[in-house]
Every structure is written in C-alpha cells, then in structure tokens.
Design a protein that fits this description.
The protein is about 35% helix and about 15% strand. The protein has helices at about 15-20, 50-60, 85-95, 115-125, 145, 155-170, 210-215, 225-240, 275-290, 305-315; strands spanning about 30, 65, 100-105, 130-135, 175, 180, 200, 220, 250-260, 265-270, 270-275, 295-300. It is built from ten helices and twelve strands. It has a single domain, classed as Luciferase-like domain (TIM Barrel, Alpha-Beta Barrel). It has about 325 residues and is an alpha/beta fold. Helix 2 packs parallel to helix 10 (about 305-315) and helix 7 (about 210-215) packs across helix 8. Strand 5 and strand 6 form a beta hairpin.
C-alpha cells in the first residue's frame, strides 16, 4: 500500500495564478485546451473555445493550460490548439477574470529568450498575475531544422535561455549570455506583476535531477503507475530538502474519456483512462496522496460532448479537490 506523502512546508508565493493553483498536500484540477474531441484528426476545430474556457472559469476549475506547438508534425499526430500561445494568452487575459493561465510548455530552444521574457511578462501583467509558465526543451526533432537549430544542443540552449529569462525579471540587469549581452542602461519592460515569473520545468528537459529541483518553481511530469510516480516525487522533493529549499509543487497531465456509467472501470488510453466518474475520483485522490498538486485534464479522446462533461466534473469532482 502506498504511503501518503506528508507535506508540512508551504510553497513560496510567486503570483496570484501560481498561488491559487498550488497548495501543499492538496490537488487542484485544470483543463488543457482545446476542450474538444479530435481523436480522429490531428487538427482540432477550435469551435466554441472561448465559451468553453469561460464556462470552465465559471464552474470553478483552477487553471487553463495552453501548449506550444510551433509546427504541425504529421508523424506526431497532434497540432495542439493551433494558435501561438502568447497571442492566445493575451486574448484569454481579456476574456477571463480569475482562472490561472498556464502554458505546458514553451519550447525554450525554439525561441529567443528575450521574446519569451517580454511576451510572458506582458501576459502576466495583462492577466493581473495569473500566468504560470511551463518550460521545456522540446521533443519533436522535425521542428529544429526549420529554425536551423541543432536538436542535440537543446539541453544546453534550454539552460542558457532559462538564465536569460530569469535575469530579465530583474531591474536593469547586466549579464553576458550566449543569447546576448545586456549592458548598463538597457532594460526590458514590463516586469512581471509580482517581480518574477513562475517557471515550471517539464519532464527532464535534458537536465540533471539536481538542476531541476534547484532551479524550477515546480515540476511537470508525465503520468506513471502510482508506485513509480510516488518514488520520483519523493526523489524530487528529497533533492529540494537536501539543499534546504522550500517545497515545490508537482503537476501532471491526464487524458480523460469520461464514461456515461459512473462505475465503469478504468481502461487505459494514451496517457490516461476511459473510466467512470467514481473511479476518476479514486484516481485523483490517490494522486493527491502521493504528492501531486495539480492535474490538467485533456479531453482530446473524450467521447461525450464537452459542456456536459465539464458540468459533470464540476458537480462530482471539484468539490472534493477545491483549494
């Protein structure tokens, strides 16, 4: 039997979005856009996407998660939500009021970090501090030649980009980085609303475990069997404790196909399950017990209409996992 993770430390407060989504010892529930079934096609319709995001906010989901898919790679089979994530964040900042706006995740090696820092800080300010920025090294080799960037250097580029973005949150920073030299008198505006951006590391991003635990404001990791996931979370938090740091959150994505019968047992699908609502509640409870702080539900394979599914989740799941 899995031992419940006891968490006594609080998470560092960074901005309103991060602070509302991540609570020690608690699990919150978010949603990945687009909220529609496009299992038979790599390209979603994006129909009613704003209305569904606004419904998610009204129903009490804690976060909306965008993805960064610069190129549609046919072999990968998923074009994401089509829109540039930073342009989309600007739209959502104006169309929502409370829900956290997350990106899972920006592929740092494919963008200049100055552009990432500027766009992310802008989205954070426009949303009144609701941005949570996941960052990744990328997993689609076909995208890299299109930008004349070596796929094999993505780990190094990721670290250098991370350092650059962190520096840009400072007042009139001065630094020399492979991406550029920022000298006295040069600054970037706006600054993030609370003075810094919450940066969550995705997977390993080609980095050592120690680097991830020390530098990220949290960890996004793929779903795994409970025993394996529990060991990895304990290892992650053990690395933080060894360095005397404050505890940090862990989140994972989850593909859900919600069955009409609430007692339908779990059947595995890509990175998730077809299951009834009762088994979903048990699954989420087990994730909370091993130390997961947030799950982003992806409805790409969900066979029921999105709106009734959102309402069902809000009625039967969110009350058990509200922060």
């Amino acid at each position: 039997m899995l031992q419940k993770v006891e968490v006594t430390e609080r998470f560092r407060e960074i901005n309103p979005g991060y602070n509302s989504v991540f609570k020690p010892g608690r699990l919150s529930i978010g949603l990945v856009v687009p909220m529609e079934n496009y299992s038979g096609n790599s390209i979603p319709s994006m129909a009613h996407h704003i209305e569904r995001i606004q419904l998610a906010e009204e129903l009490g989901f804690s976060a909306i998660w965008l993805r960064d898919v610069p190129f549609n790679v046919p072999s990968f089979g998923d074009a994401g939500h089509l829109f540039d994530p930073f342009v989309y964040l600007g739209l959502l900042a104006a169309q929502t009021r409370r829900i956290a706006l997350g990106v899972a995740s920006i592929v740092l090696p494919l963008r200049h970090p100055a552009h990432v820092a500027k766009a992310a800080a802008t989205a954070d300010v426009l949303s009144n501090g609701r941005l949570i920025l996941g960052i990744a090294s990328g997993d689609r080799p076909e995208e890299y030649p299109a930008l004349n960037i070596p796929f094999g250097k993505r780990g190094e580029l990721f670290r250098e980009s991370y350092d650059y973005i962190r520096k840009m949150s400072e007042q009139t920073p001065r630094f020399d980085n492979p991406f550029g030299c920022v000298t006295d008198g040069v600054d970037m505006l706006p600054k993030p609303l609370s003075g810094e951006l919450p940066l969550l590391i995705t997977g390993s991003s080609q980095q050592a475990d120690e680097w991830i635990a020390q530098n990220g404001d949290g960890w996004m990791t793929y779903p795994r069997p409970a025993g394996q996931q529990s060991r990895l979370i304990k290892s992650f938090r053990g690395q933080i404790e060894e360095r005397g740091g404050m505890d940090k959150p862990v989140m994972e994505p989850f593909y859900l196909d919600l069955a009409a019968d609430p007692d339908t047992p779990p059947r595995a699908i890509h990175l998730g399950f077809h299951m009834g609502i009762h088994h979903l509640r048990d699954y989420l409870q087990s994730r909370q017990e091993i130390g997961i702080n947030h799950i982003a539900l992806n409805l790409r394979f969900n066979q029921a209409d999105p709106e009734p599914t959102l309402r069902k989740l809000a009625d039967d799941i969110l009350p058990s996992f509200s922060n």
